Amino acid sequence: MPTPRADGRRPDQLRPISFEAGIAPHATGSVLVSFGATRVICAATIENNVPLWMKQQKVPGGWLTAEYSMLPYATHERKQREVIKGKQEGRTVEIQRLIGRSLRAVIDLRKLGPNTLWMDCDVLQADGGTRTASITGAFLAARLAVQKLLDAKKIAENPFADSVAAVSAGLVDGQPLLDLNYFEDKDAEVDANIVLTGQGRFVEVQSSGEEATFTPEQLAALLALAQGGLKELASLQTTFLAKQLLRM
């Protein structure tokens, strides 16, 4: 029998997921995403310009890039602002690049026109899975921002070909678990982050042992858990967007 999780969830069960639109009114599109106690503001801002390298190389279309940060009070112990240190941590750079890659996997940048879509993901509260929550919420914020371009007739077509979401999975005491909270993540022998499109195509699979190894069968079990959770997340994203787009 599977060991009950501390929060009462089944091994294959997501934490409570919620999305709240319009959390950052000065952004073009914004969403507060919650994966249980993990809460992230995802804001999309459209700039009518493209990076210098695109102009120099005459690359058509637009660009999408992401920035990620964790507020000092987001963690159990205060985390010093990176600006005080004078440089970004390697983890921060890794996560914001992952967010950017994940969204660029499902957008046709040529259809975005000569615009840059800036994604800002700011963690208000961290309880595990901040990168996966950021990706899931960032897609929603970006889609809402793009709709404003469409409604203003500044672009002719929706550049998003699909949705994208992410979730964690891991082995804790040898048991595969979906959507790890902080204490599960801290104790996991194996930790994985999986990014999937709404059509079920992989964008990225990050998986590593924490002073441990894992078998092909265990990896397959983690991927199966993640795919089930991501199908549910894609459905939640679709329902949320349908309601929000009707209001725009």
Would you write up a description of this structure?
By secondary structure, the chain is of the alpha+beta class. The chain has one domain (17-247): GHMP Kinase, N-terminal domain (Ribosomal Protein S5, domain 2, 2-Layer Sandwich), CATH 3.30.230.70. 34% of the residues lie in helices and 28% in strands. It contains 6 helices and 9 strands, in the order E-E-E-H-E-H-H-E-H-E-E-H-E-E-H. It has helices at residues 52-57, 82-85, 90-104, 130-151, 182-187, 216-247; strands at 17-21, 29-35, 38-47, 63-70, 116-125, 164-172, 175-178, 190-197, 202-209. It has a 5-stranded mixed β-sheet. Strands 7-6-8-9 form a 4-stranded antiparallel β-sheet. Strand 2 (29-35) and strand 3 (38-47) form a beta hairpin. Helix 3 crosses helix 4 (130-151). The protein is globular, with a radius of gyration of 18 Å. It starts with 16 loop residues before the first strand and ends with a helix.
List keywords for this structure.
9 strands, 248 residues, 5-stranded mixed sheet, 28% strand
Our count of domains comes out at 1
Q: What is the level 1 CATH name?
A: Alpha Beta
Write down how many β-strands occur, each being a DSSP E stretch of 2 or more residues.
9
Terminal Cα span: 48 Å
- Spatial strand arrangement across the major sheet: 1-2-3-5-4
- Report the uncertain regions: none
Q: Tell me the name of the CATH homologous superfamily.
A: GHMP Kinase, N-terminal domain
Outline type: globular
Radius of gyration: 18 Å
Q: What structural class results from the helix and strand content?
A: alpha+beta
Compute the number of helices: 6
CATH topology value:
Ribosomal Protein S5, domain 2
β-sheet strand percentage: 25-35%
CATH architecture: 2-Layer Sandwich
| Element-by-element helix/strand order | EEEHEHHEHEEHEEH
Query: What can be said about the biggest beta sheet?
Result: 5 strands, mixed
Average pLDDT works out at 94
